[in-house]
Design brief:
The chain is mostly helical. The chain has a three-stranded antiparallel β-sheet with strand order 2-1-7. A hairpin with a 5-residue loop joins strand 5 and strand 6. The longest helix is centred in the middle third of the chain and has 39 residues. The structure holds fe (ii) ion (FE2) (2 copies). One fe (ii) ion binds next to helix 3.
Length: 471
């Protein structure tokens, strides 16, 4: 195991040159450790876990692997290197110099954007805190903890911004991030998807496929920000986020592979009694987590989104690469709105449709994940295709929230919805079945019966490597 160095908070932001900030963060650190102890992964504080730790932002520095106990993980503060003379890329102030401090007029909006992003990081750790106790393998247990410690580091990254640039208000917000609790009705997390309990590994793999992917697109949009420290922070977080998406994508794919093997072996679609998960039930989990994650992008028409874009606070994903024009003025976007109970296509200003533009990019990325899953099914010569439900399906935020639609996007009345939703979303009984499969497997190299092994190990290690040394 590596030795913890003298530097209490590893960083590449020259923390030693700013004693006030350093003191403030060192003051927050014990509260974070207490929060981790109370709300972080349950039951593995003494286990030694083969984790990747960021100790710098260069190729060697950000992927340092060793066995480490989670409470001793070094949550550091790292920003991607600055681009010299970076100019504002979009909005009304395009071409001007980016900001190294928060402009007074954007203080409130930027704080809100940062706090909303920051709140999701500890929330997901809280949601997943019991999963370790029913892990399908040590390989998966290690991946869960890798995701957890990195979400902890993302919280650190956001708290650094709050402490550095938002004075007293920022410090208060940083304290609040440790006070809210996922699923707590008195003091819940800000966004609803992050208040849903994740008590089984199928939900974890769906969450890391669909909800972490929302995180990816929010970070891509914030990585375009004219507020340079925010842009650089998000850029570095994206390198870690890629692993979370990998865990989700390959996790679901391994479940599919195992299901297909059982289907072929027993010549039936109904593999529940052989300890597998039916493809139709997997589709229901896709419907649930994809629709819940779509809500995270916000309303179809949003004056906040328009203002954020105009002010250069939050751009579009891959703003420079994908778009020729970066002011988004005088352009329209066609959305389908519910007017007098009817779906009606309306052109709205492009700026006020920025949530929808980001949601489009997200959906395209989700489709790629499904393509890989469908390829897996095809390789087993099974006739089944996973599909994303329509974006109107099962929404709780925005235009479609007060209406019911089927997975193809067709309008239903309330009675039809209540009769049919069991065909599209996991029922209580089905959730219980999934939970009944969750029995811990903790021998190196062994795998639970409902999931296939991965094709390869982490960082070139064998599958039977001791990814977690239980004490
Ligand atoms: Fe994160
Ligand atoms: Fe993540």
């Amino acid at each position: 195991m590596y030795a913890i160095n003298n530097n209490k908070i590893p960083n590449n932001v020259n923390l030693d040159s700013d004693p006030r900030l350093k003191r403030a963060l060192e003051h927050w650190q014990p509260d974070f450790i207490r929060w981790w102890g109370a709300m972080g992964p349950e039951g593995f504080s003494q286990a030694e876990i083969y984790l990747r730790t960021a100790i710098g932002v260069d190729a060697q520095g950000w992927a340092f692997y060793d066995h480490v106990r989670m409470p001793e993980y070094r949550w550091g503060i790292f920003l991607a290197p600055p681009e010299p003379e970076r100019l504002i890329k979009f909005g009304d102030d395009i071409g001007r110099k980016t900001w190294s401090e928060v402009p007074g007029e954007h203080r409130f909006a930027l704080r809100r954007l940062i706090v909303t992003q920051a709140d999701t990081e500890p929330a997901s750790v809280e949601q997943q805190r019991l999963l370790g106790l029913c892990c399908p393998s040590l390989y998966d247990l290690r991946n869960l903890f890798q995701v957890n410690v990195e979400e902890g580091r993302h919280l650190w990254a956001m708290v650094y911004l709050l402490h550095s640039y938002f004075g007293r208000d920022g410090r208060d917000e940083a304290d609040e991030l440790l006070a809210r609790r996922s699923g707590n009705s008195d003091n819940p997390r800000i966004l609803n998807t992050f208040n849903e309990a994740i008590e089984d590994w199928l939900s974890f793999f769906m969450f890391t496929t669909f909800t972490d992917r929302d995180g990816k697109f929010q970070l891509l949009a914030l990585a375009e920000s004219s507020f340079d420290p925010l842009a650089r922070t998000c850029k570095f977080m994206l390198t870690e986020e890629a692993h979370h998406l990998f865990v989700g994508q390959t996790g679901v794919q391994r479940v599919i592979r195992r299901s297909c093997e059982l289907m072929n072996e027993h010549d039936t679609d109904d593999i529940g009694r052989f300890g597998g998960i039916n493809l139709a039930l997997l589709q229901k989990y896709i419907n649930y987590w994809y629709s819940s994650s779509l809500d995270l992008f916000g309303s179809e028409i949003s004056s906040n989104a328009a203002n954020y874009f105009a002010a250069g606070l939050k751009g579009r994903a891959y703003e420079e690469k994908l778009f020729k024009e970066h002011r988004a003025c005088g352009q329209t976007y066609a959305v389908e709105l519910m007017i007098n109970g009817q779906l009606t296509t309306k052109d709205i200003t492009l700026r006020s449709a920025m949530n929808e533009v980001l949601r489009d990019a997200y959906t395209r990325d989700c489709e790629k994940a499904l393509e890989k899953w469908n390829k897996e099914v095809l390789e087993h010569h099974i006739n089944f295709t996973f599909e994303l439900p329509h974006r109107r399906f099962n929404r709780s935020v925005g235009e479609y929230a007060n209406w019911h639609f089927d997975p193809k996007g067709l309008l239903l009345d309330t009675q039809q919805w209540h009769e049919r939703q069991k065909n599209w979303l996991p029922t209580t009984h089905e959730r219980q079945f999934i939970k009944s499969l969750m029995k811990p497997v903790t021998k190196p190299g062994l795998m639970a019966g409902w999931i296939a092994p991965p094709h390869k190990g982490i960082n070139g290690q064998a599958l039977d490597f001791s990814y977690v040394r239980l004490s």
